[in-house]
């Protein structure tokens, strides 16, 4: 079972997400344990203080190192595994599908969610193993980014989705954007499902899906094509698409 601990000042933000949908079912199946812990409980102040004004002056408040260190050390002392300790921070590495796949191999993850102006730098330097950001923008805290990352990671664990091929064919998992999906009815308001998907010819369907994934990636995220391993057939199809686009100008 994977264990995921989230250190936050607002554990109630996690309740609905952790109990609902795929994450809730994953916990019911015993695949993952999700825990939100208020690190204010680890404050060494009688008032539960977890932040203070920054040295050198300036606006805002900075999270103190003592409660964060104490909380992480307490969690680590209860397990025999070495956890990845992840700081959610706008300055961190951008979270990607590849990162999700990497973290999904771990047994224990600890996420640290901050508020206020920032973290005492000693938390970065001497405690965490990873810093993650979900994009180039700033939120009021790390809770929402942590929930995004956790959802992305947990859905990759065996048995979570039920259909093990779902996660494998997701956008970004193959390096490409995912091909289009269709379901019943075969015709809706005059729009028909592509005939090939109704043919029952699995080899042709797989080829069509690959080509559609390549086409969609070329149109929407061509930068991804530089990072994915392409076959000679893939390159020939992409060249054909590019020639068609140029001739249509």
From TrEMBL:
Domain of life: Bacteria
EC numbers for this chain: 2.1.1.228
Alphabetized Gene3D superfamilies for the sequence: 3.40.1280.10, tRNA(m1g37)methyltransferase, domain 2
Matches recorded under NCBIfam families: PRK00026.1, trmD
Subcellular location: Cytoplasm
Main location: cytoplasm
Gene this chain is encoded by: trmD
Ranges for domain tRNA methyltransferase TRMD/TRM10-type: 2-226
Acetylation as UniProt keyword: no
General function of this protein: Specifically methylates guanosine-37 in various tRNAs.
Family: Belongs to the RNA methyltransferase TrmD family.
Coiled coil location: none
Protein residues bound to S-adenosyl-L-methionine: 114, 134-139
Protein name: tRNA (guanine-N(1)-)-methyltransferase
Gene source species: Paenibacillus cookii
Keywords: Cytoplasm, Methyltransferase, S-adenosyl-L-methionine, Transferase, tRNA processing
Subunit structure: Homodimer.
HAMAP family: TrmD
Catalytic activity: guanosine(37) in tRNA + S-adenosyl-L-methionine = N(1)-methylguanosine(37) in tRNA + S-adenosyl-L-homocysteine + H(+)
């Amino acid at each position: 079972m994977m264990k995921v601990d989230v250190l936050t000042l607002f554990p109630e933000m996690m309740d609905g997400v952790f109990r609902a949908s795929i994450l809730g079912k994953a916990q019911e199946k015993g695949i993952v344990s999700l825990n939100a812990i208020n690190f204010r409980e680890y404050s060494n102040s009688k008032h539960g203080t977890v932040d203070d004004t920054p040295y050198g002056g300036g606006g805002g408040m900075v999270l103190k190192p003592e409660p964060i260190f104490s909380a992480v050390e307490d969690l680590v002392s209860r397990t025999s595994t070495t956890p990845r300790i992840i700081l959610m921070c706008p300055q961190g590495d951008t979270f990607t599908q590849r990162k999700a796949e990497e973290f999904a191999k771990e047994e224990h993850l600890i996420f640290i969610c901050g508020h206020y102006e920032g973290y005492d730098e000693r938390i970065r330097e001497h405690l965490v193993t990873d810093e993650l950001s979900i994009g180039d923008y700033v939120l009021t805290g790390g809770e929402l980014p942590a929930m995004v990352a956790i959802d992305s990671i947990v859905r990759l664990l065996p048995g979570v989705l039920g259909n093990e091929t779902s996660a494998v064919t997701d956008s970004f998992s193959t390096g490409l954007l995912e091909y289009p999906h269709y379901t019943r009815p075969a015709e809706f308001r005059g729009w028909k499902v592509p005939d090939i998907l109704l043919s029952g010819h699995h080899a042709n369907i797989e080829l069509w899906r690959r080509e559609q994934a390549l086409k969609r990636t070329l149109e929407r995220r061509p930068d991804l094509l530089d990072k994915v391993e392409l076959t000679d057939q893939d390159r020939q199809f992409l060249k054909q698409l590019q020639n068609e686009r140029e001739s249509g100008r």
